[in-house]
Amino acid sequence: xxxxxxxxxxxxxxxxxxxxxxxxxxxxxxxxxxxxxxxxxxxxxxxxxxxxxxxxxxxxxxxxxxxxxxxxxxxxxxxxxxxxxxxxxxxxxxxxxxxxxxxxxxxxxxxxxxxxxxxxxxxxxxxxxxxxxxxxxxxxxxxxxxxxxxxxxxxxxxxxxxxxxxxxxxxxxxxxxxxxxxxxxxxxxxxxxxxxxxxxxxxxxxxxxxxxxxxxxxxxxxxxxxxxxxxxxxxxxxxxxxxxxxxxxxxxxxxxxxxxxxxxxxxxxxxxxxxxxxxxxxxxxxxxxx
Length: 290
Prior knowledge:
By secondary structure, the chain is an alpha/beta fold. The chain has helices at residues 3-15, 18-25, 29-43, 59-84, 99-116, 133-136, 168-174, 220-228, 238-241, 272-289, and strands spanning 48-50, 55-57, 91-97, 120-126, 140-143, 153-166, 188-190, 202-203, 206-207, 213-216, 233-237, 248-250, 256-264.
């Protein structure tokens, strides 16, 4: 088996349908189906159990999956090592981060990067949690949780202050909360418990007892929008909320701190274009720190 065959198997295994796999591979569905069928014919056994709506792995497919993922990691490692030897300030750099970090820091950094190095392009991948950047194929990640790995280059970019915010309309309806009263009687806008469990016990310095979470959302930009629309009290990054004239900070002395980390594949830290991107990101976050 070669990697060109294996990547079609892996895409279908990950996404469960030909359509989604085709979108990921940027080919048509017929090509994916044909390549998977050809691979099964070569192996003499089925890799998937087909249903009208999805593909699930056969026993052989399940046995092969870990080995094919290892193939993918090896191919990506070869590509990164080849790229690290390229000292030219051109080419693409893939950045994985959250939508909030992208809006506030990455986009301004890219503006400055374009002025200095117009031949460097960027692919920006946004999500809430980035647990394994090699799996996603990114070159570097900016995230709010320090990964537990000895194989990655990890650097703290900044420490972000967060606070509680609401609109005047909400406060007129619900009243100003009383400090130390566990935010009883108030509507809270929160990250899902499984994503940020600590906020469900301590919401920016206020201990909670049976919190009335009227909205759970995995995007801080949408939590900010919900707060601006008067749905409740949101815990937001101060660099976003302090600039918003529609938001009022509640208990300004209460602060929640989040470290922001740059995570980089060591194979790429010597690549000139990656170093240029990292420098632009560091400068962007440094502006906030000042």
